[in-house]
Amino acid sequence: MTDQPGGVIWDLDGTLVDTAELHFQAWSALTGQLDRPFSRGEFAATFGQRNPEILAALFGQRFTAQEVAELGDRKEEFYRAAAEKGVDLLPGGRTLLAGLKAAGFQQAIGSSAPRANIDLILRLTQTASFFDALVSEGDTQRGKPDPQVFLIAAHKLGLDPRRCVVIEDAPAGVQAAKAGGMKCIAVSFVGHHSHETLRKAGADRVVPSLEQVSPSTFHELLS
To answer: Computed over its alpha carbons, how large is the radius of gyration of the chain?
Structure first.
């Protein structure tokens, strides 16, 4: 093992916080304005993707690139207004963040969310001080399962991707981590995906919650 413990790259929604219902309600509000129903199944199939990809899945080529950007912004305004009422870290989140920092791990967020959403969540949960780098939708051109978001995060941390562990909750995110040459811990707490689905996606470890993970887990994966 090197003197540098390595890096930990966190997905945000479903991993550090559970704001899925806020996103569902925001998409429902937007699609309602556009006279298009939005189902739970469609939400499950697109959750974690970048807004341009979700809008393309829902509406095809109906909108111009500028309209897609404006619709995405409107959806996120709905989401942030709801999130302002309060968001909590998932069980074990704060303890693990603090433990990793104390153990010398660098930490980053690697999310398909817009930067304003990430900043909001970190402010509401008072966790910004734990992170050395943030990567958001605006930093990428390709969404998960493409590894771009995690590779950019590793680069921002100044680390070889092979020295990084990704924490994810979705198969596409697990696949992105593995495609980038990284280890991956998948957390099934929010229940969107089964233990078996996450394992089949390639996760090195699947745990029911962050409470089952400690800095030693990351040392073991990187050793």
So the answer is: 17
Instruction: Give the tens place of pLDDT for each residue, 9-54.
Output: 999 998 999 998 999 999 999 999 999 999 999 998 888 788 999 9
**3-state DSSP helix/strand/coil percent for the chain, to nearest 5?**
50, 15, 35
Question: Which region, left, alpha or beta, applies to residue 183 given φ > 0 means left and ψ of -120 to 50 means alpha?
Answer: beta
Q: What CATH number has the domain bearing residue 207? A: 3.40.50.1000
**Residues spanned by the domain of 203:** 7-17+88-222
Which one is catalytic: 3, 13, 18, 119?
A: 13
Judge whether 13 counts as a catalytic residue: yes
Q: Is 204 a catalytic residue?
A: no
Tell me: the pLDDT tens digits for 161-211?
Answer: 999 999 999 999 999 999 999 999 999 988 778 999 999 999 999 999 999
Tokens standing for residue 50: 């970048």
Looking at the DSSP bridge assignments, the partners of residue 9 are 108, 166
Active-site residue among 3, 11, 18, 119? Answer: 11
- Residue 70's CB is within 10 A of a number of other CB atoms, namely 12
Reply yes or no on whether the pLDDT at 2 is more than 70: no
- Beta bridge partners, 108, equal 9, 133
How many domains does the chain divide into?
A: 2
